[in-house]
Design goal:
Blueprint: H1 14-26, E1 39-46, H2 58-64, E2 68-74, E3 79-85, H3 98-116, E4 120-126, E5 130-133, H4 140-154, H5 165-170, H6 173-176, E6 181-186, H7 192-207, E7 211-218, E8 232-236, E9 243-247, H8 248-272, E10 276-281, H9 286-293
Length: 294
Amino acid sequence: MIEKLLKKSEYKSLEILSKEILEGLFHGKHKSILHGFSSEFKEFKSYEQGENPRNIDWKLFGKTDKLYTKIYQDETNIKVYFILDISSSMFFPFETNEKINKAVQITATLSTILQKQKDSFGVIFMSDDLTFESKLGHSLAHLKYIYQALENLLDEKSIKKKTGFPELIKGRIEFLGSKKKIFFISDLMFTEVENSLFIQSMLEIKALKNEVEILYMVDPSEIKSQISFSNYINIEDKETDEILSIHVDNLNQTLQKMHELKFESLISKLIHKGIKTHVISVEQPLITLIKQII
């Protein structure tokens, strides 16, 4: 387990952090947060000698003078995949890596909830290639394995990976199968062609009777520059190493237009086609973001 996140002593291990968030969510109440394992009443049947008498409905016996037992039908446990985009842009801002950190913390917390509910979960890391893929599992050992994989991801100092997320997802549709809940966690920094491919893939995955949710990771500085002490700033594209000098006012106008364009060309289309999409503003507290998702 790593000793700290973001190299600040106030950040805790993912295991401790997730448990603290769960305590804040449950407030002592014993109930499921994500829909998962439970049993529901199906029908009555006549009691037969040798069956467990605990299943006898004594209220019904009082009304009918006959012994009946309740039959329950277990709901199928949900199976959940968390697919993380780990391309370079997800490590922005590069001083704090706040987008990838919040993505990791959200994944760890939701995985902890699922493990407590005995639901199966797994994680997949993608950028321009597939870098990590776990099997589905629900044991405590599996959860700790997921914690470690996520913490190892945060240990990467300077990741240089281009976005190939949409194309890779297209090639994994058959692997994902059907009847699962799938979270796609990304800043959606795609080209126009990749936007179309991503939307098509989401619809194909949904058509296989999967429940799809997208967590769109946004840092406020991607919408408006936080720099006010300089007229011009240098911007480096971490995926291409290209450096651009631009006036702050022009930068803010460009950022705002890019943000609006992304909503128009991608996010609004996803929502219109029934793909649930959460805008995750990473400056917000983790517990606020978890409540937004569940």
